[in-house]
Amino acid sequence: MRTLALILLAAILAGCGEGENQKTSHFEHDHEMPDHWPNDLADSALKIRDRLSMHQRFPDLRSEMTSQIIDIVSWVPEIAADTDLTEEEWIPIDQQVQTLSQRLAQQENMDNDHQQLAKQLCDLIEQSAALLKEDAKAEGVSE
User: Fold this and answer.
1) Rounded to an integer, what distance in angstroms lies between the CA atom of residue 26 and that of residue 127?
2) How far is 27 from 110, CA to CA, in rounded Å?
């Protein structure tokens, strides 16, 4: 009887915290998640592209949009690592992140070169997200 109670207690505790907001970061317990944290890999490309567009259209938001782009770019490797991408598929994304991050560290503004690198990163992310969707569809068909 005591074993059954312990098993039920463990099951209840294991279920606590699971709900609407699933784990989105290895560091989630350490701090509040920013509003611009991407929901998934594809969303990271969408958020970067949105901020690039806002950066161009609204000069008074350039500093904030640049800061958010830097944040999102820095999170992409973690988000990609939480997917089913193979190492071979993940490495080009990580390399593009490293290149863009190094350039932004030297000159923290989104000039044309930085914007082009960010767009190339988005292209890689979108290609990888499409591969993940294809894999998921293939798995769904085979089951």
Assistant:
1) 25
2) 27
Residues 14-41 have pLDDT tens digits of 554 444 444 454 555 556 889 999 999 9
Structure tokens at 99: 């290149």
Q: Which residue has the tokens 């992140």?
A: 97
**What is the distance between the alpha carbons of residues 118 and 51, in angstroms, rounded to a whole number?**
10
- CA distance readout (Å), 134 to 43, 62, 65, 111, 137: 17, 36, 32, 35, 5
> pLDDT (tens digit, 9 = 90+) per residue, 120-137?
999 999 999 999 888 777
With contact defined as beta carbons under 8 Å apart, do 121 and 99 qualify? Answer: no
